[in-house]
Give the backbone structure.
Amino acid sequence: MATGTRGARGHGWLRKYRAGLGGRHLQGQWHFRNVNELDEINDQVFSMNESLSKEDNIPTEAYLDLSVAGDAPRRVVIELASAALPKTTENFRLLCQEKGEDGGYDSTLVYKIEKTVGLCLGDVVSDDGSSGRCHPKFGTYTSPYSFEDEGFLVSHTGPGIVSMMSPGVHRNDSRFLITTKSAAQLDGRFVAFGRVKEGMDVINDIDTGVFTKRGRPTVEIKVVGCGIP
């Protein structure tokens, strides 16, 4: 019979709990992490954009104009880790620039609001989160609708992190999320590639002001404009 000092799982949960390092419900590699250190690493990743030359003409920002229930749109500007994650950020930028029926983010919906994670959007196929499609530039013969994980360089340390929502390993398409809270459980699972530079109040207002039913918004939240500022 386990004594409780190490526990049946062998992780020494009681000792960690007494030391303020979490409890039985916080087992795993992320139960205790240095957020300040991870924020510094995030800053270093985004600062790599300074190495991009003007001749390359690689954008490091994109924007989304969000309208709630037909109200006037409000803009969210996203800083992209273009130097560190060129493929993931270019896929996002190209989808932001597609218009009309070309399969971009324009006129798509925020299809789910996860209160413990953030806003889910970017389903350019069915608009309900059940599918997605990467930009044709990155599709291949064997995988026409998705592309591989480029790297887990940015951590989900707090609100405003923009991250791909892949249904599995190396299956990134168009779906993405914007965090409203720290989401350590997503580190190493979803490729984070951006962060909100302006308009976090827009995201917070949607998160706190829109009623949901099983995570689905009860009003239409639409991307009425997107592109490169």
Observations:
- The chain is about 20% helix and 20% strand.
